[in-house]
Amino acid sequence: MTPTITAFESSPDRGRGLARDMRVRWALEEVGQPYEVRLVSFEEMKQAAHLALHPFGQIPTYEEGDLALFESGAIVLHIAERHAGLLPVDADARARAIMWMFAALSTVEPPIVDREMAGYAERDKAWYAERLPILDGRVRGRLGQLSRRLGEAEWLDGGFSAGDLLMVTVLRRLETSGLLEEYPNLAAFIARGEARPAYRRAFAAQLAVFTAASGG
Predict the structure, then answer these.
(1) Mean pLDDT, residues 174-178 taken together
(2) Quick one: three-class SS letters along 68-99?
(3) Are 206 and 14 in contact, with CB atoms under 8 Å apart?
(4) Rounded average pLDDT over 86-101
(5) Residue-level pLDDT at 128
(6) Which has fewest Cβ within 10 Å: 48, 75, 146, 200?
């Protein structure tokens, strides 16, 4: 059965591949699973039909038969467990890959999102100039730890996995911050992820939605 995911009808990321349906698209492309996309407006995201799928009124959601999921990390894990290609066969390596999935979403992403949201909501406030260095410091702390752990390795733990997929999507949220320039190995890590054919297909599909919504 072909799964259906939801995505923004008009994404606030303006086609930059930062909306969280990108993670799910990329995972599906990596495993070669065809999928359909149902586009939803911000108004529809708050209505009962969508809230039945996602109680917090966000995207993405994933539907396959009687199964309905929300939360991008949970969806990517489901895809990785259902199809070969995103999790190692070896049990210990598999556990470590899942560990990195949690690390990307629970440890690395929160300070990045805090910085991003402050830019949206507080940029015009008197305290923002003092607060930004604090936020940058928290992000640098995580980036430094991750950079030291990655070292000169190509991926986080052996071959490419769902852990790398999620970490790349998390780090890409910093693409305009200037912070990644301080960690060349992380910038190279992101570039390797973006060079994967599956990533390119997913990015092109998401960009096409924005292009159509904005009239080309």
Answers:
(1) 93
(2) EEECHHHHHHHHHHHCCCCCCCCHHHHHHHHH
(3) no
(4) 98
(5) 75
(6) 48
Q: Write out the DSSP string of 153-177.
A: -SSSSSS--HHHHHHHHHHGGGTTT
Q: Would you tell me how many other CB atoms lie within 10 Å of the CB of residue 120? A: 8
Cα–Cα dist 72/13, whole Å: 16
End-to-end Cα spacing for the chain: 32
Higher pLDDT, 118 or 98: 98
| Amino acid identity at 187 | A
Range with the poorest average pLDDT among 7-16, 44-53, 142-151, 156-165: 7-16
**From residue 137, how far is each of 91, 120, 127, 130, 166 by CA, in Å?**
36, 18, 16, 12, 22
Amino acid identity, position 91: A
Q: What is the mean pLDDT of residues 9-18?
A: 89
- Name the residue among 111, 118, 102 with its Cα closest to residue 141: 111
pTM: 0.95
Instruction: Name the residue with tokens 């301080």.
Output: 182
3-state secondary structure of 36: strand
